[in-house]
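notes to self, project folder thing:

trying the whole complex as one job this time. last attempt i did each chain seperately and stitching them together was a nightmare. two parts in total, labels are on each line so i dont mix them up again. if this works i'll redo the older ones the same way
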Amino acid sequence: MSDLLKATMALMDFTRIRVLNLLLERECCVCEVMQSLDITQSKASHNLSILYQVGFLKLMENDLWSLYSVDREGKYFDHMIKVVKKAQEDNKVLVSDIERLKGAKRIGIEKVQKLASQGCGFCAVCKPDCPQYKLRAEIEQGERK
Amino acid sequence: MRDLVKAFKSLSDETRLRIMNLLLERECCVCEVMQALGISQTRASRNLNILYEAGLLKQRKDGLWSLYSMNKEGMNECFNALIEAVRNGLEGNEVVAMDIERLRKAERVGPGCVSKSRR
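result (full assembly):
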């Protein structure tokens, strides 16, 4: 039961469901998660590490990147992951996260933070002027209603 | 999406997972849950209510009893997958197997039901 409990606890947070949803699409480094979800580096790392500790994810480290991916041989893959996959079908936020992942670049955390402060116009990290950001705000408002 | 997060939250508790296990077996009244899990009426009712609020259960009144069961019709595919995941995760667990044993012996009489119907 403790395995199941850990899994439900890990997924009782929307950000972590979104992270898992991204990683189901393909393996990502922390900076791609940051860009796609429009969250800070500490939040991305924190939530990735929780999912990793519980056993949802695999970590592959090389010189440049720490790449996280869904552990397809893991104990949760068959059932819990299916829940997230089904959730994606009728959730706009999860779908738009995947869209933004396509535009995300593996540019490294430092550069993402720099771009975020300047506003780059191509990623979701930069604030109000960015069309991606506006789209996201609209969708979230719709969710709230 | 809130709903899914709420469902995960409601399942992040050992007592509630044990209750889910009972209700996956069959429809139960509060006093049966009390007996099977060996917990107080307030605790059974509260946890049943949390699962009910999350949309996982449905409730019906039958005379003195309020009966809870899985909300099979009211759930979308995502919730069904979640229930499957719970069922699978509980498989082979000794604690929940004992709960089912006790549920077989449980009787549908109890202070829980009676006091609830008087309210």
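what i see at first glance: Chain B is about 65% helix and 10% strand.
need to look closer tmrw
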